[in-house]
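Model the whole thing, not chain by chain.
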Amino acid sequence: MNSAIRTDNLTFAYKDQPVLDGVSLSVEKGEMVGILGPNGSGKTTLLKIFSAVLTGRGEVKLNGRNIQTYGKRELSRLSAMVPQESQILFPYTVAEIVLMGRSSYHSPLAFEGEGDLDVARASMELTDCLSFADRYLHELSGGEKQRVIIARALTQEPQILLLDEPSAFLDLKHQVQVFELMRWLNRERRLTIVAALHDLNLAALFFPRLVLLRDGRIYRDGTPKEVLTEETIEEIYGIKVRVEQDTSNQKPQIFVRPSGL
Amino acid sequence: MKVLDRRKMLAVNGVLLVLLTLSVLSCTLLGPVRLDLWQALQNLSAVNPDAEILFRARLPRVLLGVAIGGGMAACGVVLQALLRNPLACPQMIGVSGGASLGGILGLIFFPYWLLPIAGELLGEISWVPLAAFIGALLSMVLIYRFSLFHGRLHPYHLLLSGVIFNSIIAAIIMFLNSIVDFYQAQGLLFWLMGSLSTRAYLTVGFIWAYIVFGFLWLWTKGLSLNLITLGEEAAMQLGVETGSLQRQIFVASSLMIGAMVSVSGMIGFVGLMIPHVMRLIVGSDHRLLLPASFLAGGIFLCWADTLARILLAPAELPVGIITAFFGGPFFLFLLYREGRKLPV
């Protein structure tokens, strides 16, 4: 059985500043994994290596095959990435942006066919942005923009979906919507999902497996209950917290205890 | 959901193509001397003054204008995408500076001693462009080397090294200008201002060959150009081999710019303005934006040069004055009306 993603003693350094330092991780097909860790712990770098934007030292295998052996077009049909931030400098409409997710499915010289439009429409429906398909992307709010980018990733029809803090700029309602969408895609579409997350409570509620990074190494890897303990969080983030079980679903939830209160 | 399809593609380019054809016809007939097309077609030999002016003087010039206008606009489009900078233009990537310096050295060190041997071919018409084109190619290689890091052509390095390279060249040109004699200095200045005057179909053919080749090459990259405007990483994740794409765009546009500047000097504004105008009118999809800008650039420069020929006839204005003076206000008007389409 081939894992969706497998890394073996993966290291990465910018100049001589190590960012990842011996990460061995295996994500099975159909798994949903949240990557946690403070700023600078290597979450984004890990996702960039998984999407072949960066190349580290140590083998990375997607579906049992070395990531270096994939062409870019082939890779973009296997995995899609939702980046933390998307800077769009030229006036594109929402539909145009979403359809860019189809570009490795049709010939570079052709227009999108009916099939491509259907996939794009379905993705926009899922992320609730079909109603403003003809508006310009730069006219949208941060939350709407992020949903468009997620729709673009879904339009790639990937098996593996990588997300880098997908709810970073969203209000509470849209944050929960994004997490619900990720869970739905994982359960109903059998998508393998790896997401860098910063909201520990939402991560605990929605993700069955969490990987906690510290200084480019895996510090903890397990269920939310195993990873999110009071001691671990104090150790990693350096703040005092109280962890309690949510009585309705038995998931750990974190309560911050600021000093002086 | 409105998307680009074959119908919109054909409609927009069809209309522009008809306008371009009409422009070429009218601009060839317009000029300080009134000509009769019918009269000209009766007898195509040199003894017929109508035919001589139409086909030896005006037509090659109009055809050159279309090529340069279209080529500049197309290069502007792809460079703005490649450099992810809406202010990028063909004059910016250094190749134009290299061509200018080459052309000026060609003017100063004109090999008069070769004239009796090579005669017509080495005549002043094609010697200077040849020197300019060599300058363009050398500077292209140089800038390419300076912008390449770890096998990747870095957009910011490319932009910066181009701008710096051009300032160095400008300094050299000013230096040369101050040490040559008065008549040579006058010639240099005239060459630098840019002009579309030509009588040689050979030159026009040379330019068209480069423009058509480069344009078609770039047009096949239309879809990838859309993706590269999202940034390198996003483009990679959407399936673009960004390294190869960036190299191809740079080489194709440099060859076009080198060829254009060699023949007509620095004709500014078309390459910066037309891409923006067309983006506001037809949208940002490069599969349509690129051919539409090419055709619109051709139309624009064709008319600008005609104005330059007739406004102060029989004297001639540098065409750069017309492009900026009439194009500028139009662009501002469009910006005012359609500006909400632009990302802030």
